[in-house]
Design brief:
alpha+beta; nine-stranded mixed β-sheet; 8 helices; globular; binds N-(5'-phosphopyridoxyl)-D-alanine
Length: 283
């Protein structure tokens, strides 16, 4: 089956999908994206992703071209057309195509909409059994990280550093505190079993998986504490993990070469991963 992608109202073979060079997403990274997981052929926690897409667009003044029902219909059709059982749906909306000029294009310029799927093993990921290593890097991003902007150069550089170091993720820090992962939310678990993650602000993306994991933890009698933590505290923590639509709950076993939790995925992290998978399969 050839890969089918979605561009501006049409499902087309991947090889035929093109974007004009004057697209503002290409010229200015003037656009927003979302990533939803697909498990057993079904979208996971997708309404929350679409709500965040809507918020991101409105924060930068791009009209959302579709309502939740239409987005969902398009995503589901894309999943079906590609026979996707497990992986991701990527969605991007840019401010459209116009002669290069920094200020917004003329009123009525239609946004560009692109969607594609990626097959990926998210549930039976061997890395989740072994546990992931991370490095830390300075957070070089702009001040509105709550917006899921396609301007990802700082994350590209951070994650390339991680790849070059042979590890799975880069945790970014600012003023001594971890902000988040290059494409994930950072968590630690203290010796007294408190699940700690940074409170939401403009310093980080409001992770959809973060929110689901916090809710599941609380429903299961676990304590969640929203506060910033340092790299040193994370290295000394009982357990650490990160969350995202593409990793679900990923145990962290090493930070900057220092073993965390004896270098094994911790029991609470495993439990949270199981709870999340159970929720995702039921969605
Ligand atoms: N990234 N923080 C950042 C900077 C992210 O890019 C992501 C997700 C997250 C986790 O958010 P969520 O739980 O809603 O996926 C946190 C996606 C997966 C990506 O860029 O591919």
């Amino acid at each position: 089956m050839s890969r089918i992608v979605y561009v501006n109202g049409r499902f087309v073979p991947f090889e035929e999908a093109t974007i004009p060079i004057m697209d503002r997403g290409f010229l200015f990274a003037d656009g927003i994206y979302e990533v939803s997981a697909v498990l057993d052929g079904r979208l996971v926690d997708n309404e929350a992703h679409l709500a965040r897409l809507d918020r991101s667009l409105s924060e930068i003044g791009i009209r959302n071209p579709h309502g939740i029902a239409e987005w969902t219909r398009l995503e589901e059709e894309l999943v079906t057309r590609n026979g996707l059982k497990e992986g991701l749906v990527y969605m991007e909306v840019t401010r459209g195509v116009a002669e290069r000029d920094f200020a917004f294009p003329p009123e009525g310029t239609p946004p560009t909409v692109v969607m594609f799927t990626q097959a990926k093993t998210v549930s039976a990921n061997p890395l989740a059994e072994r546990g992931a290593k991370v490095i830390t890097v300075e957070d070089l991003r702009w001040k509105r990280r709550d917006i899921k902007s396609v301007a990802l150069l700082a994350q590209v550089l951070a994650k390339q550093q991680a790849a070059a170091a042979g590890v799975a993720e880069a945790w970014m820090h600012e003023d001594g505190f971890v902000t988040e992962g290059g494409s994930s939310t950072a968590f630690i678990i203290t010796e007294d079993n408190r699940i700690v993650t940074r409170p939401l602000s403009t310093a980080l993306l409001p992770g959809i998986t973060r929110r689901a994991v916090m809710r599941l933890a609380e429903e299961n009698g676990l304590t969640v504490e929203e506060r910033a933590f340092t790299v040193a505290e994370a290295q000394a923590a009982a357990e650490a993990f990160f969350t995202s639509a593409s990793a679900f709950v990923m145990p962290v076993i090493e930070i900057d070469g220092t073993r965390v939790g004896g270098g094994q995925p911790g029991p609470m992290t495993r439990r949270l991963r199981d709870l999340y998978l159970e929720m995702a399969r039921a969605s």
